[in-house]
Amino acid sequence: QHSCCTNLHWPMEDVGESSAEALVTAQVSETEDAVDQRELQVAGRDRRTAAVAAITFAAASAVLAVLFLTSQGDVSRHSDLHRPSTWKSLFRDDRLGFADEGGWSESLQRLLPWRAQERGLDDVKPAKGLAPIWRGGQSLNPYAKQDKAICTGHVMAASAWLAAASLKVKAAVQECDPRNYGPDPQNSVVSPGPALPGQQAFVHVNNTLLPAFCSRSVLGIIRDFTRVGVLLEGCAATCQNEDLVGIGCATAVTNLVSVTANIGRFGSELDIFCPNGLASFQNYFNCADRLEGIAWSIDIWSTSMGASVEECANVTDGNSKVDYAACVGELLSAAAYVGSSGLSITSAADFDCPSSYDPKEYAAMSDDQKERARYRCARDATSFARTIGLSSSKAIRAGGHCGGSSTLCGRTIGRAAAALAGVAEDGTFLYQFCHPPTKCCKRDSKTFKVECNCTPEDIKENKEADEQDRELCSRFSASTVKMLSAAVTLIFEARAECDVHEDFASNACASFVSAAVASLGYLAESISRQVRRCAATNNPRTWFACSQDTGFVGDALDTLSRGIGAATVNCGLGDVKRQTNFINFGRRFFVP
Question: What is the pTM of this model?
Answer without folding.
Answer: 0.76
